[in-house]
C-alpha cells in the first residue's frame, strides 16, 4: 500500500509543475486536467479513508439536499470552462475559512491554495471576453449557490470536524466533476492542440 506520506510530495511537485504557466490557452485543458489530478491526490491524502462514525448521517443528508449543476447543464465548452473556473475559485474561498479542525498542515494548505489560484487565473485569462449568455450566467449562479450552501453549512456547524469531513467529500466530488467535464470537452475534439503524450 502506498502511504499517505508518499503521495504528498508527488502532489506538491505536480502543483509546482503546473504553476510554470504560459498563456497558452490551446493547452489549457490538458494542464488543467493534470493540475486537477494533483489537487485530488492532495485532498485524498488528507482525507480519512473511512468517514468517522459520528459524521455519516450528516454526509448523506447533505449530499441529498445540495447538488452541483449536471453535465447537461454545462454541455458547451465555454459554459464548462466557466463552471470549472467558478468551482476552483469557490473552493479556494472555502478553504480559507476557519480550518483548525480540518487537520491539514500549513504547507499542504498553502500548496493547495497556490494550485487552485493558479488554475483559476489561467482559466480566467483564457475565457472569452464577450458578454456571457444567460445560460452561462445561470451555470455560474448554480455553482455559486452550491458553494454558498457549503459555506452556510460550515458556519452553522461552527467549522467542526464533521462539517469539514463533509466539505472535503463534496470538494472531492467537485474535482471528479471537473475531470468529467474536461474529458467531455476533449472527446468532442474542441481542444485539438493537446499533445498526445498528456
Ligand atoms: C482519521 O480518523 C482517526 C479517528 O477518528 C483520527 O485519529 C485520524 O487523525 C484521522 N486521520 C486524518 C488524516 O484525518
Ligand atoms: C475556529 O473553529 C474552532 C473549532 O470550531 C473554534 O474553537 C475557534 O474558536 C474558531 N476560530 C475562529 C477564529 O473563529
UniProtKB/TrEMBL annotation:
It comes from the Eukaryota. Residues 1-22 form the signal peptide. It is found in: Secreted. Coiled coil: none annotated. Gene3D superfamilies: 1.20.1250.10. SMART domains: IFabd. One of its GO terms (cellular component) is extracellular space. It holds the Pfam family Interferon. InterPro entries: 4_helix_cytokine-like_core (IPR009079), Interferon_alpha/beta/delta (IPR000471). GO terms for molecular function: cytokine activity; type I interferon receptor binding. One of its GO terms (biological process) is B cell activation involved in immune response. SUPFAM superfamilies: 4-helical cytokines. Keywords: Antiviral defense, Cytokine, Disulfide bond, Secreted, Signal. Belongs to the alpha/beta interferon family. PANTHER family: INTERFERON BETA, TYPE I INTERFERON. This is Uncharacterized protein. It comes from Anolis carolinensis. The lineage of its organism: Eukaryota, Metazoa, Chordata, Craniata, Vertebrata. The gene is LOC103277688.
Amino acid at each position: 500500500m502506498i502511504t499517505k506520506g508518499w503521495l504528498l510530495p508527488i502532489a506538491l511537485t505536480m502543483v509546482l509543475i503546473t504553476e510554470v504557466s504560459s498563456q497558452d490557452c490551446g493547452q489549457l485543458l490538458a494542464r488543467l486536467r493534470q493540475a486537477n489530478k494533483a489537487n485530488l491526490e492532495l485532498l485524498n491524502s488528507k482525507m480519512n479513508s473511512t468517514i468517522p462514525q459520528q459524521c455519516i448521517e450528516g454526509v448523506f443528508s447533505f449530499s441529498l439536499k445540495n447538488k452541483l449543476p449536471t453535465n447537461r447543464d454545462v454541455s458547451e465548452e465555454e459554459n464548462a470552462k466557466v463552471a470549472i473556473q467558478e468551482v476552483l475559485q469557490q473552493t479556494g474561498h472555502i478553504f480559507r475559512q476557519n480550518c483548525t479542525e480540518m487537520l491539514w498542515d500549513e504547507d499542504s494548505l498553502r500548496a493547495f491554495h497556490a494550485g487552485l489560484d493558479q488554475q483559476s487565473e489561467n482559466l480566467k485569462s483564457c475565457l472569452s471576453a464577450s458578454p456571457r449568455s444567460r445560460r452561462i450566467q445561470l451555470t455560474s449562479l448554480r455553482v455559486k449557490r452550491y458553494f454558498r450552501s457549503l459555506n452556510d453549512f460550515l458556519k452553522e456547524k461552527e467549522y467542526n470536524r464533521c462539517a469539514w469531513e463533509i466539505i472535503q467529500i463534496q470538494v472531492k466530488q467537485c474535482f471528479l466533476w471537473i475531470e468529467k467535464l474536461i474529458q467531455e470537452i476533449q472527446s468532442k475534439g474542441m481542444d485539438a492542440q493537446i499533445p498526445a503524450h498528456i
